[in-house]
Design brief:
The structure holds two protein chains of two kinds.
Chain A lengths: L6 E8 L4 H14 L3 E6 L9 E9 L12 E6 L2 H6 L4 E10 L6 H4 L9 H8 L4 E3 L1 H8 L5 H10 L6 H11 L2 H16 L2
Parallel strand pairs in A: 1-4, 4-5, 5-6
Antiparallel strand pairs in A: 1-3, 2-3
Helix pairs in contact in A: 1-6, 1-7, 5-6, 5-8, 6-8, 7-8
Chain B lengths: L2 H11 L4 E4 L7 H9 L4 E4 L3 H13 L4 E6 H6 L1 H10 L5 E7 L13 H7 L3 E2 L4 H18 L3 E6 H4 L1 E2 L20 H4 L3 H24 L4 E3 L2 E8 L1 H10 L3 E5 L2 E3 L3 H10 L2 E5 L5 H8 L7 H4 L7 H9 L26 H11 L3 E4 L17 E2 L4 H13 L7 E6 H18 L4 E6 L28 H8 L3 E5 L4 H13 L4 E6 L16 E3 L18 E5 L11 E5 L9 H5 L5 E3 L2
Parallel strand pairs in B: 1-2, 1-3, 3-4, 4-6, 5-6, 9-10, 9-12, 13-14, 13-15, 15-16, 16-18, 17-18
Antiparallel strand pairs in B: 5-11, 8-10, 19-22, 20-21
Chain lengths: 194, 589
């Protein structure tokens, strides 16, 4: 935790990966267990396959909805390369969780630039206890590629001091009934990883 | 609640009867929320912000609490009614919600709406979180009625899109009786009557400045007296975060400013700093009061503020202890047109004609980015038609057969109809393409006057664009399915050769729309052995395509690589298939 006992979680990735839902659930959980919560994300053009970030801050009193650079307690990244883009937000004591998945940016899929080859290795050198998760593979096994966000939320939940039941309750309330079971499965699977 | 949800809730609780808006990031969700959750409010999308404000003015003149909602550049469009509305004043409370976009997350400039408050001599309120956003709506409406003025409620991207807790209240109603009341010396701005109103406006501004002295949202919070910070909106939150123990004057009303309160605060602190986003409006006005103050030399004029920027401005450096840096050159990840986007097909046809394209604001602005690179101008909503026509008229033969304007359907209804009329009226040989994707796509698919349904999905009339252009005097009007790229390319060529204005309507629903879908949603695949690796398909920039480099030279194979389609992303629009000269693309089985 950073100054004033506020926990800063930065969730990043690519538009369409379900980052907003994951951060919505996280903020509701934090609110439910009695924290003051603020959250901010970038909408608009970012939805067209652009880079997306969502800041969630919770604790006793929270002023800024944005995390200060260098003060993220957890950096949860849904995509390899995006981890590095938001790396300057990570605190020296921060936890890193990376979904081992690549989404090629335009300059790469058009063959003009290379996707940096050794991202995970460099992260490991900087932060030896970084957690890598093959979220997309796990989602495939569960039977719905779209639940990768909730799997990663499950992984994240292990490193935050809030009860798993609170997440499950919020998931039940936030999702359409037919999606609840598969997402609870995804959350539990995520919690068992990492 | 997000700031935008809170503003919508505030309107509901304060008894707003009428709401009108044109979508624009970061303001869009306000009217969407009203549409979804508050049927008590009569609400609808206007074709543009000028109309939205005029509709809200009508509601207000009739005694109804009314709001118009827009992004910062929307107020440019609505500036005409706004400036004189300040003279007529209101009847029912009238609030103009304007959301600024510092850092231009999704905008073409970062103008500061407080200038309009000063320009129009109207008050400006600024919430710093969602609770204030909700509460200040009611405060603004009452202020509007008490002082007989339109009130600007100014938000910003970070206030509108941040979530923080909000305490809810019940719906109340405004104080004015509804009805048609004749008062022509106040409401008809003929010169003689406007001359009488101007002194009223000047006195009102003085009264508002006096009111600002005791306005409860302008408050001094004394702490450490060695530094006093004057701030408002999200900038206040950043400053609080950076220096929780400093003394603060938090402004809830940023125009007009409370002179005595500022003097009192300045006298109590050793060092006075204004932390404000965008322009130094508060800072310069404090200086005009003869008070020594610091501001923009610390925070800078450009871009949005952030907790670390404000901390560095106030303390010289950040107290954060960041993780060790990772040095790596990162490919950018700009927003991109979606797989199956009809605009990509239209731009592909234009690329083959080697034209010079004037456009404006919408998803199609993304056509400027590589590898497409097919947009040469973007100024403001609706500007592309006028620019193309101006190029054509000024350059004559130099632009002949090359000057093309592209405009989306929603933007066309917003401000493209008058330049199209100008083109018909004044002539020339400009070709205009309406990229009609049947929605307001960039802001998340809001309906408009061409879609046939309203904010609340009620069926309504739908504009016949072809007939409209015909009535303007256009003789050359062609409607094409843009996915038939080769046909569209031919049509563009023919119209460019014509010696009179032409209109092409490239019509296909946005690839994200579920209704009226014409995309087959069956992926294509590339025959790897047939593909020559020419990259024609790759250069459309479709995210479903990828260029695979050949690792090893194969005997007799001159290719550097070949294209591959990601079947999970491909929706089968066939733009690449139309463009492929080697018949290398087929339906995936």
């Amino acid at each position: 935790m950073s100054a004033n006992n506020v926990t800063n979680v930065l969730i990043v990735g690519v538009g369409g990966q379900g980052i907003i839902l994951a951060s919505d659930v996280l903020s509701k959980v934090a609110g439910r267990v009695g924290h003051e919560v603020k959250k901010n994300e970038i909408h608009g053009m970012a939805q067209r396959g652009g880079s997306v970030s969502s800041h969630v801050r919770f604790g006793k009193t929270v002023s800024s909805p944005i995390i200060k650079a260098g003060e993220a307690d957890v950096l949860l990244s849904f995509e390899q390369l995006e981890t590095i883009r938001y790396w300057p937000y990570l605190s020296a004591k921060g936890k890193v969780i990376v979904n081992d998945h690549k989404i090629l940016p335009p300059a790469v899929f058009t063959g003009q630039q290379e996707y940096p080859p050794d991202i995970l290795q460099q992260i490991k050198e900087c932060v030896p206890d970084a957690v890598f998760v093959k979220g997309d593979d796990v989602a495939g096994k569960i039977g719905n590629p779209r639940v990768v966000n909730v799997i990663l939320l499950g992984v994240l939940s292990k490193y935050l001091d809030m009860p798993g039941e609170a997440y499950e309750e919020v998931l039940k309330e936030s999702l359409k009934p037919k999606l609840v079971d598969i997402n609870l499965k995804a959350f539990r699977q995520g919690r068992s990883l990492g | 609640m997000s700031g935008n949800e809170a503003i919508a809730r505030g309107a509901y609780e304060a008894g707003v009867i009428l709401a009108s808006a044109y979508p624009g990031t970061p303001s869009t969700e306000i009217l969407e929320n009203i549409g979804q959750h508050y049927p008590e409010i009569r609400a609808g999308w206007a074709p543009n912000e000028k109309v939205a404000l005029e509709v809200a003015s009508g509601g207000s003149y009739g005694g109804a609490r009314s709001i118009a909602v827009m992004k910062h550049v929307g107020l440019n469009v609505a500036a005409d009614p706004f400036m004189t509305l300040s003279y007529t004043g209101v009847n029912g409370g009238l609030v103009i919600v304007v959301c600024d976009d510092p850092e231009m997350h999704s905008s073409q400039n970062e103008q500061d709406t407080r200038h309009y408050a000063r320009f129009g001599k109207a008050p400006c309120l600024e919430p710093s979180d969602s609770q204030e956003a909700k509460d200040m709506m009611a405060v603004a409406l009452k202020m509007s009625e008490d002082f007989d003025t339109p009130v600007i409620l100014r938000s910003s991207t970070r206030v509108s899109h941040s979530m923080s807790p909000v305490e809810l209240g019940k719906r109340t109603s405004g104080p004015r009786e509804l009805g048609l009341k004749k008062d022509f010396t106040k409401n008809v701005m003929l010169p003689a009557f406007a001359r009488r109103r101007h002194p009223v406006v000047e006195q009102r501004l003085k009264d508002l400045a006096e009111f600002a002295e005791t306005f409860p949202y302008n408050k001094i919070m004394m702490g450490d007296e060695s530094i006093g910070i004057i701030s408002a909106g999200i900038a206040y939150q950043y400053a609080r975060e950076a220096m929780p123990d400093a003394s603060f004057l938090k402004l809830g009303m940023t125009w007009p400013l409370p002179k005595k309160l500022i003097e009192e605060f300045a006298s109590k602190v050793k060092r006075l700093v204004v932390i404000e986003e965008l322009d130094p409006i508060t800072e310069e006005n404090v200086r005009l009061m003869g008070i020594k103050v610091e501001g923009k030399e610390l925070t800078g004029l450009c871009g949005e503020l952030s907790p670390e920027k404000v901390e560095a401005a106030l303390m010289g450096s950040s107290s954060a202890k960041p993780a060790a840096a990772i040095q790596m050159e990162l490919p950018l990840r700009p927003p991109n047109m979606c797989p199956g986007c009809p605009h990509r097909a239209t731009f592909s046809a234009l690329k083959k004609n080697k034209v010079y394209v004037s456009g404006d604001i919408g998803c199609y602005t993304l056509g400027a980015l590589p590898p497409m690179g097919m947009l040469d101008h973007c100024l403001c909503m609706g500007a592309g038609i006028g620019i193309a026509s101006g190029l054509d008229r000024a350059l004559g033969d130099l632009a002949k057969g090359k000057a093309v304007a592209v405009i989306g359907d929603s933007t066309f209804f917003h401000s493209g109809m008058t330049p199209l009329l100008d083109l018909a009226y004044n002539g020339g040989s400009t070709t205009v393409i309406i990229m009609d994707n049947r929605t307001t796509a960039m802001t998340g698919a809001q309906p408009h006057p061409g879609t046939g349904y309203t904010l609340r999905e009620d069926p309504t009339t739908s504009v016949d664009v072809e007939k409209l252009a015909e009535s303007f005097g256009f003789r050359r009007i062609r409607t094409v399915n843009p996915y038939l790229v080769i046909e569209l390319e031919k049509v563009v060529k023919e119209e460019l050769e014509a010696a009179e204005p032409s209109l092409i309507i490239a019509r296909a629903p946005c690839a994200l729309l579920k209704a009226d879908r014409i995309l087959p949603d069956k992926p294509l695949r590339i025959k790897e052995d047939v593909c020559k690796g020419c990259k024609t398909c790759i250069n459309t920039g479709c995210p479903a395509l990828e260029f695979v480099k050949l690792e090893k030279k194969i005997e007799g194979d001159k290719r550097k690589g070949y294209s591959r389609i990601n079947e999970a992303l491909c929706v089968g629009c066939r733009t690449c298939m139309e463009l492929c000269k080697f018949d290398a693309i087929e339906e995936a089985s």
